[in-house]
Amino acid sequence: MMKYFILLFIFLISSNLVYTTTISLDESNCVLVKKYTVHVVNNLPQNTPPLSLHCQSKNDDLGQHNLTTDQDFHFSFCDNPFSTLFFCRFIWENKNVSFDVYSAGWSYNRCKYGVCAYGVKSDAIYYSLYYPLKNLTKYWGW
């Protein structure tokens, strides 16, 4: 009997890992894994060109987005603790930078509350453990 419970447990774990990362707006889709949400907020000055943003993972292209000042782009997903990786390209005026906005290994530090939040300013891109943004830490310079 115990053997069947162990096999069932292994099956559930392995099927969830094969499941890969899923873009989700409904936390109930996350079985045995945690839901994370990435926010990008345009904190650039008023009356400047919009922030151009393109985020994706190996499996999911989230498309190109143009954010005006104070506008937020966000997406949620079920984490595969071994392989989830999302990266974004940020373009504003003559500035252009790309970096990882979520990596599975960060879940216990940079995104430990289920949120990875970034505020884009004219001097750099900042991150926060919270949304709405607070306690910003400079992360990536232009």
Automatic annotation (TrEMBL):
Keywords: Secreted, Self-incompatibility, Signal
An example Gene Ontology biological process: rejection of self pollen
One cellular component (GO) term of this entry: extracellular region
Compartment(s) of residence: Secreted
InterPro entries in the record: Self-incomp_S1
Primary location group: secreted
Pfam families: Self-incomp_S1
First and last residue of the signal peptide: 1-20
Protein family according to the UniProt entry: Belongs to the plant self-incompatibility (S1) protein family.
Official protein name in the record: S-protein homolog
The organism of origin for this protein: Castilleja foliolosa
